[in-house]
């Protein structure tokens, strides 16, 4: 399995224009521990001479990344989207949620194949002065 650590910089220009660049990508050939990640991050920041310009490091929530940043010179923040993705994935493992999603998909599929029902929905939305919506 290939594993990479990408070192990406994000900054604002004086006019607050957002800029970003991938500065370097490091290939890990072996298991990468928190200590290894920390040393690579510190090495990369020193190589690019930007250590004093790093205000926060956005990271995923893997234990090795948390350890690496917590034990480094940097402040780290967990990525909200990664946290949300993990929560959604965990919720889909719950049997009732998965069954409900399956049922909802079947209903929407059936609904989308019946033009008379779609027409009825459109008419009801018009009567109630609602924007026209469709099931997806």
TrEMBL record:
One of its GO terms (cellular component) is nucleus. Its main location: nucleus. Transmembrane segments: none annotated. Keywords: Metal-binding, Nucleus, Zinc, Zinc-finger. GO terms for molecular function: zinc ion binding. It is found in: Nucleus. It comes from the Eukaryota. The keyword Ion transport does not apply. This is Zinc finger BED domain-containing protein 4. It comes from Parnassius mnemosyne (clouded apollo).
